[in-house]
Protein 1
Amino acid sequence: MSNWPAIFYSPHQDDEAIGFAGAIREHKEAGRPVYLVLLTNGINPGLLDILNGRVYCGWHQTYHNYQLTMEQLMWARKIEFVASAKRLGVDRTYIVEDGQGLDDGEPYYDYAGFLTRVTNIIQRFESEFSGASHKLVSGSLDAWPDGSRNPTHVACWEAAISLRNQITDFRFYRVYVYGHPLNDRNAGFILNLRSSWLDAKREALNQYKFFNPDAGRFALGYHSVPTLIDAAFEDGKEYLDFLP
Ligand SMILES: [Zn+2]
């Protein structure tokens, strides 16, 4: 049983580092094969606006002018993801849709279609690695302090719910919980990270903060969600949920 893989599905580039990098190390140290799956393509108009100077960068206190295309931005985000996966020592890294990732804009205009795609992906992994543990994000349970939820994350949660009669080994991790004050971070179960897990998690997070434009590294994770990355870096815990 312990040779069955633990499959972690990251909705976006950086969710794995923020939400379950420590759990990846936990499973690795327990001797489990760990596979990491990136679900979406990284499309993000607001992020492109920051890198191209249409919006002020509060971090660097300047208007950037990198003249990136959306295609280049999406590749740069995937590079950060692969670098994070390498730091975590996962056994296999997947980017769905032949390396493109699902369109992260789709849940905003065709949520049902996107939900079907995510459900099919989980089913495909289950049929290839029957009996695997499937690790996703808590979606509906994981809101920003203002109560809003990310529809891509919600689709991960709802896909798992729809598969509960076929797959029983699900676990969920919160990401936006790190947007709350430390004393207001809750979940079904709180995992205290061993120091070796936290060290690896911090290395993974740092891949999203590594800024070296000449080398094609734009710290896109940190330009996108700096507060989550900083909070996850400082917090020694991860926040889990189970099937309701
Ligand atoms: Zn900047």
Protein 2
Amino acid sequence: MSAFEQTIVLLARATAFTVVCQVCADLDPHGEYAGLTAQGSLRLGHDMGWTECPRGHRIRVIRAGGAVSAEATTPLW
Ligand SMILES: [Zn+2]
């Protein structure tokens, strides 16, 4: 029951995402794009979560490593 079909990696500062479910895309390569996407969110400070596509495939979400965030938050102006 705990098996995840797929895993996505979020950018360090991202809090919301939309992904194409690869399982659905494989099952129904001619399906409408909107029917293949899953939306979810991950609060800042949370390193892992999961979402489900419209057909119920579980998608694991992992945040990119914290080492990257220091670089990403360096002011450029
Ligand atoms: Zn799916």
